[in-house]
Design brief:
The chain is α+β, with helices and mostly antiparallel strands. It is 27% helix and 48% strand. Strand 1 and strand 2 (33-35) form a beta hairpin. The chain is globular and about 35 Å long.
Length: 127
């Protein structure tokens, strides 16, 4: 009987864990007006601590296009899916997420990415 309760408890715990992973945090950059900047700070902390996390970083274009970078930190790397108005644009993997301080505020960046540029993508400078 004890094993049955243990199995039930493990099933319940895995369901809870799965639900936590599905609760995606959303950060919105609407023409440099950032909503939920704390979401980016929490994501950076989770990456540093090796905790899995998913976040949607939403950018709006000048014509209202909705660009979404979904950052899925697996505990080892950050899997990035970039879409615009629901259409997949690209997918890539990055090694780190950093916050640096500059004269114009904090900069939030993905680094060590496997795309052709310098491997770095700046998400948001925040003053």
């Amino acid at each position: 009987m004890g094993m049955r309760y243990f199995a039930l408890a493990m099933l319940f715990a895995s369901i809870l864990y799965g639900c936590q992973r599905l609760a995606t945090v959303e950060v919105i950059n609407n023409h440099s007006e950032i909503q939920n900047i704390e979401g980016l700070k929490t994501f950076a902390k989770d990456v540093k601590e090796g905790k899995s996390q998913v976040i949607d970083y939403v950018n709006y274009g000048i014509e209202g296009q909705r660009g979404v970078h979904t950052l899925d930190y697996t505990g080892k790397e950050i899997e990035v899916t970039h879409s615009v108005d629901g259409e997949l644009i690209e997918e890539y993997v990055c090694g780190n997420f950093t916050i640096t301080k500059g004269s114009d505020g904090e900069h939030y960046s993905l680094e060590g990415c496997d795309f052709e540029k310098d491997g770095k993508l700046q998400l948001a400078p925040v003053q």
